[in-house]
Every structure is written in structure tokens, then in C-alpha cells.
Write a structure and sequence with these properties.
The protein is of the alpha/beta class. The chain has two domains: 118 residues, Rossmann fold (3-Layer(aba) Sandwich); 94 residues, Arc Repressor Mutant, subunit A (Orthogonal Bundle). It has eight helices and twelve strands.
């Protein structure tokens, strides 16, 4: 399994790494909600272990943002909040499972294995496609009509966010969070990055996919009347 651990307790994170890595699992860790959201949206994980009480962005809000973006990676909430209303709130935010602290590491492993079994057939797409634009989420190689596209890192991040949301709009604030994780520069740098993205994705092609929504943001969508491909 490739796991993302979003947890600010360093001792607990260390215990998770010591337990799971010798069993052949690959782990990434995020110490706060903003970093966790960035990793979860930019990489493909088999499951996410998510704490509730996190700095900068709490676990329930983070989970809501993931589900709003259509990211269906299985999530198990790992928290000391053990009251029934808390558990209900966690599940309603989009959690697939809920485990209260303290817990036994073998139980967490079994619960994660069960989540992966249930997730077969509904796992997050590894390749995004809209019209003739394709993006491989494993290699981040992008092509349009079979032609390889050169994308700067910032443009690649924007493309992932726009394609995952397609055909829905993505607000300027959401895109700025993708690029700068809440530390948005004073200058309107987003406009410059969108310009570069358009040059790569739409410039050489007759059909334009990226559309500006005044005072809202941007959307990437197939031509009107044509469904996006999975």
C-alpha cells in the first residue's frame, strides 16, 4: 500500500513508519492540514490516515475539500475524539472508517486492508482525460491529441486541479491554494500561470478547453455537448 499519513504527532508518525515500512508499505507524511491537502491532491495514494485536530486546516475540513474535488481515496480518521457526534460528523464529511486513539497498529493495518478491498472498482482514476487531453497521474505526463505537452511544475498542478474538477469550475482561491498553500503572493501570479497553461494545452489546437469564468475562476471542459472521458 502507498499511504499518506496526515498527523502532527511526531511520535505517532514514527511508530506508523516503523510498523508499516518493514511490511512493504510506502508512506508519506504531512505535519499539518495544508501540506496534507497538497500531497493528497497531487499524488495517488491507496489510502489516507487522517488526524482530526491538525494545525492550519483541521482533518474534517481537509476531508471535505478532497471530496469536493472528486478525490475518492479511502480515508480512515485517526483521532482521540471518541464521542458519537464526532464519529457521525467524520463519516458525514466523507470518512470511510473511524478509529479512536489509543489503538493497536495491527488493527489499523486490518482496517486499511478492508478499505482497499471495498475500494476495488471505485478507486481514483490513474489517468484523467477530457476530450483529447490526457494526464497520467502516476508519471504526470500530459498529451493532447497524442502530442506530448511540456508543462512547468506550477502549470502541472493547475492542470491536475482543473481536470479533476472537470467539467465543474474551480475558483481562483482554490487554484491559489493549490499553488501556494495559503501563502498567496500579492501580485496576480495566477493569471500568469494560467496564461502559460493555455499556451501549452490550447495554443496549438483548434478546440480550446480552458475557459475563464469572470469573477469566479476557470474551468476545463470538453466542447459543449461532448462528455468527458474517464
Amino acid at each position: 500500500m502507498r499511504l499518506l499519513v496526515i498527523e502532527d504527532n511526531r511520535n505517532l508518525v514514527s511508530n506508523l513508519f516503523e510498523f508499516f515500512e518493514p511490511r512493504g508499505h510506502q508512506l508519506d507524511a504531512a505535519p499539518d492540514g495544508i501540506v496534507g491537502l497538497h500531497l493528497a491532491t497531487m499524488h495517488c495514494y491507496d489510502a489516507i490516515v487522517l488526524d482530526w485536530m491538525l494545525p492550519r486546516l483541521d482533518g474534517r475540513a481537509l476531508l471535505g475539500k478532497l471530496r469536493e474535488q472528486g478525490i475518492d481515496t479511502p480515508v480512515i480518521m485517526l483521532t482521540a475524539r471518541d464521542e458519537l457526534p464526532d464519529k457521525i460528523a467524520g463519516f458525514r464529511a466523507g470518512a470511510d472508517d473511524y478509529l479512536t486513539k489509543p489503538f493497536a497498529l495491527p488493527e489499523l493495518e486490518v482496517r486499511l486492508e478492508a478499505l482497499l478491498t471495498r475500494a476495488i472498482g471505485r478507486r481514483q482514476r490513474r489517468v484523467l482525460q477530457v476530450h483529447d487531453l490526457r494526464l497520467d497521474l502516476e508519471t504526470f505526463e500530459a498529451t493532447r491529441a497524442g502530442v506530448a505537452l511540456h508543462l512547468y511544475p506550477a502549470c502541472r498542478k493547475l492542470l491536475v486541479a482543473l481536470m479533476r474538477a472537470s467539467p465543474a469550475a474551480v475558483t481562483r482561491q482554490q487554484l491559489e491554494d493549490v499553488l501556494w498553500e495559503g501563502d498567496t503572493p500579492e501580485r496576480d501570479m495566477l493569471r500568469s500561470h494560467i496564461y502559460e497553461l493555455r499556451r501549452s494545452v490550447d495554443g496549438p489546437f483548434p478546440v480550446k478547453l480552458i475557459r475563464t469564468l469572470p469573477r469566479v475562476g476557470y474551468r476545463l471542459a470538453a466542447p459543449d455537448g461532448e462528455a468527458a472521458a474517464a
